[in-house]
Amino acid sequence: MIQSMRGSNQSGLRAYNQRLVLSLVYAHGNLAKTDIARMTGLSAQTGSVIMRELEAEDLLVKGEPIRGKVGQPSVPLSINPDGAFFFGLKVGRRSAELILVNFLGQAQATLRKSYPWPTPQLIVAFVQNGIEEMLQALPKKLRERVAGLGIATPFRLWDWTEQAGAPREAMDLWRGCDLRAELAEACDMPVYLQNDATAACAAELVFGNHPGLNDYLYLYIGTFVGGGVVLNGSVYSGRTGNAGALGPLPVTGPDGTPVQLLDRASIMLLERMLKAAGRDPSPLWNNPDSWVGFEDLAEEWISIVARGLAQAIVSAASLIDFEHAIIDGGLPGEIREKIVETTRREVSGYDLRGLEVPKILAGTVGPLARALGATTLPLFDKYLIDRNARLGGT
């Protein structure tokens, strides 16, 4: 959580100061003008002007006065939920999700589409139709407050053709596709792009229920497995925006030879296990909140996943002194809890001399984490300040 950041009393930096005030109020829930002055170092006059401007723009709203023993009552200000709206798109290898959220990240509408594999044409049509439908349902006076669309997608989709079981010619369509540009033209709004697992990490940081965590490794189990890194309270995306992409991390395979983590910790592995047993894997993608009818194979899969995640967490802890490791995924909550519990047991079986192992926690956002994380891209680009990293795309 942002405790304090310094503002400037120079008029030329008014836009920065507005973002600063919004960021502090966003992080703390509500703040009085005296709190803002103390946290930012802004003069009382400058702070009051900024607060009035943000109120006039309907970005902040006043609460009920809080009366103390002496002096004027304190009036807290909070984020206006209807002050801004954001679209978020998750492009997955088996499904896509489109979400519309308000300024506080509360979902106003969601759409989901499953498919055997994605193509650019399919995704653009899904988004165009979905945005039109969601905007029509939004009150007319609020439509102009939509600030943009964030995309969360695996990078280089064509590299995973074999693993996804998709035709080469279909996945090769992504090689020359600039999805951000195509959607910006089709939807007539600012569009941003980020790696899907990094976006999920941002969702946990901004909207999750683990307040106060500053340094952690984030692991997200989807069709494949990915991850993210949070340092000093901000997502660290790295030189190419792919920091924490744990899928290619070498781990021990079933016969003792090295394999990639995505081969041991992914829903794709469970899909293969179900197909090999002659069972229908479609519930994995059609209903990520409820997996029923294959509990036996799910238990076997959880053990395999936990061994891979444990090796990844111990390896990561030897490089960065993470306080926590958070595990989430596009899967039912009870499955996630079992994975977390089993991973803890697996980690305890390692020789941990010389290491301070991070505390392993369950994520709190779940299947919508990637789409919700995508909404943080226009949120930060337009309104908030991230101290150490830029979450937005181009």
Structure summary:
This protein is of the alpha/beta class and 394 residues long.
* Amino- and carboxy-terminal Cα gap: 26 Å
- The ordered string of helix (H) and strand (E) elements is HEHHEEEEEHHEHHHEHEEEEEHHHEHEH
Shape type: globular
Please identify which CATH superfamily of the largest domain we are dealing with. ATPase, nucleotide binding domain
CATH class call of the largest domain: Alpha Beta
- Uncertain parts: 388-394
Sketch the major β-sheet.
5 strands, mixed
- Taking all residues together, what is the mean pLDDT? 89
Number of domains in the coordinates?
A: 3
- Assign the CATH topology of the largest domain: Nucleotidyltransferase, domain 5
Radius of gyration: 22 Å
Q: Estimate the helix proportion, in percent.
A: 25-40%
The tally of beta strands, per DSSP, is 15
The portion of residues forming beta strands comes to 15-25%
What is the CATH-assigned architecture of the largest domain?
A: 2-Layer Sandwich
Which SSEs are present, and which pair or pack?
Layout: H1 14-28, E1 30-31, H2 33-40, H3 44-56, E2 60-62, E3 77-79, E4 85-91, E5 95-102, E6 107-114, H4 120-137, H5 140-143, E7 146-153, H6 161-164, H7 168-171, H8 179-187, E8 191-195, H9 196-207, E9 216-221, E10 225-231, E11 234-236, E12 250-252, E13 258-260, H10 267-276, H11 283-286, H12 295-317, E14 324-329, H13 333-348, E15 359-362, H14 369-382
Parallel strand pairs: 4-7, 7-8, 9-14, 14-15
Antiparallel strand pairs: 1-3, 2-3, 4-5, 5-6, 9-10, 10-11, 12-13
Helix pairs in contact: 1-3, 2-3, 4-8, 9-14, 12-13
